[in-house]
Amino acid sequence: MKIPVWPIGPLLPSALLNKSSSSAGYFYQHRAGKQPGISVEKCIKWLDLQKPDSVLYISFGSQNTISQAQMKALASGLEESGVLFIWVIRPPLGFDLRGEFKPEWLPEGFEERTREKKQGLLVKNWAPQLDILSHKSTGAFVSHCGWNSVTESLSQGVPIIGWPMAAEQAYNSKMLVEEMAVSVELTRGLQSEIRGEEVKEVIETVMGEKGKGAEMRKKATEVAERIKAAMNEEGDEKGSSIKALDDFISAVYVEAKRKEICS
């Protein structure tokens, strides 16, 4: 189209990029109107007890959920893998997302067993996502690949297990897998069939300390450094995003002056 383009971003809190938050709940406190399904302090305290890169975070965003069959398969594979997890869980497809969560939507006894084994936390509403992703114990993110979640995850060097559902999410997932090598795709859509064995295999691959999981974490860390560099502004050193914004403002100023002279 022969018009200039200025790439600016990512649009993330500076504290997230600089890791300057010094207290649990820093990011949550800036989320007005959100009702947490778990206290930020409890969440961070639990994460503090875990080893680095050992926790799998699962969330499909505030507007998405999965079918009951998919939910049971995900729970089954998660339990079989033995991996530690934080799962933001809502009623399955066909039910009120804001309604009460029923144990029957999960494998029988799943919640009790994982609680007794201290394997994970089920968060029934909203979780402090930025605090979780920025914690050193978080090793991977099962995500619907919405762009906000993608940038929040990659800014912390956290690789992704993709489950795109709608809108541009499939394109995001394709880029993450094929171009950036920071993700593997578990499945797509709300009607797909998955088995617990498949879930377990993917989780073990991504959370593994060697092989593909290690390579994905390395790639994700490299992307995180590029994201931070883009937003860097120290002295005369300016990142690509800062420079692009300066160029945009300069272009607007020049055009305004041109129109003023012409008129």
Description:
- This protein has 263 residues and is of the alpha/beta class.
- It has two domains: 14-223, Glycogen Phosphorylase B (Rossmann fold); 232-263.
- It contains ten helices and eight strands.
- The chain has helices at 14-18, 40-48, 68-81, 110-116, 129-133, 147-154, 169-179, 196-207, 211-230, 240-262; strands at residues 55-59, 84-88, 120-123, 138-143, 160-162, 183-185, 233-234, 237-238.
- The strands form two sheets. The chain has a six-stranded parallel β-sheet, with helices on both faces. It has a two-stranded antiparallel sheet with strand order 7-8.
- A hairpin with a 2-residue loop joins strand 7 and strand 8 (237-238).
- Helix 3 crosses helix 8 (196-207).
- The longest helix is centred in the last third of the chain and has 23 residues, at 240-262.
- The two termini are 27 Å apart.
- Mean pLDDT is 89; it is low at 20-25.
- This is UDP-glycosyltransferases domain-containing protein.
- It comes from Rubroshorea leprosula.
In short:
This protein is of the alpha/beta class. 43% of the residues lie in helices and 11% in strands. Pfam families: UDPGT.
Any descriptors?
single chain, alpha/beta, Rossmann fold, two-stranded antiparallel ribbon, 8 strands, elongated, glycosyltransferase
